[in-house]
UniProtKB/TrEMBL annotation:
PANTHER family noted in UniProt: H2HPP ISOMERASE
Protein's name according to its UniProt entry: Cupin type-2 domain-containing protein
Source organism per UniProt: Nonomuraea monospora
Pfam families with a match to the protein in the record: Cupin_2
Matches recorded under InterPro entries: Bacilysin_H2HPP_isomerase, Cupin_2, RmlC-like_jellyroll, RmlC_Cupin_sf
Domain of life: Bacteria
Cupin type-2 domain sequence ranges: 70-142
């Protein structure tokens, strides 16, 4: 079933194709971002380097941010959270460890999730966490997708929730 524009109208492109009238020209084509096109001018956390690929800034995305994070060998990131954004992480290389404070039990407890290439991690909104790369020789690389078109990063002193502001 074809997508119906909200106003019910269609427009003809210069090439003669009818498209929904409420879709702007920038969102009618695929956008290719090659590795050399990733940009580092995004929110950062100590101990890691974020590279932006798909966002409002790079491709005009309206509700998605996607990029890479690199954590050098024998390095830990600073503690941080991503505001109201949900974050999905795919491990490309290395064996990063994701650390958070589990507050669901009788006592808060620091939890460590050890990962391998091909693993996925889901980080709910506002959850304080950090990434660690225990490998002494190789960097860890992950691909990140967020439910906002900007890289929301709030750096924290600790993993507890005392600094989290909703």
């Amino acid at each position: 079933m074809p997508v119906q524009p909200s106003d019910g109208g269609y427009v003809r492109t210069p090439g003669g194709v009818l498209v929904p009238g409420d879709i702007d020209p920038f969102h009618r084509t695929l956008h290719h971002v090659a590795p050399g096109g990733l940009i580092g001018q995004t929110s950062q956390t100590s101990g890691m380097k974020r590279l932006e690929a798909v966002s409002g800034k790079t491709v005009g995305a309206r509700s998605l941010w996607m990029g890479q994070t690199h954590v050098a060998a024998s390095t830990s990131s600073g503690n941080h959270h991503h505001g109201a954004s949900e974050t999905a992480i795919y491990v490309v290389s290395g064996n990063p460890v994701f650390v958070f404070l589990d507050v669901e039990g009788d006592e808060p407890a620091e939890r460590r999730i050890r990962t391998s290439p091909g693993d996925y991690i889901f980080v709910p909104p506002f959850v304080p966490h950090r990434e660690e790369n225990p490998d002494p020789d190789s960097e860890a690389v992950v691909v990140i997708a967020r439910t906002t078109q900007e890289a929301i990063v709030v750096n924290l002193d600790g993993l507890d929730w005392s600094e989290v502001r909703l």
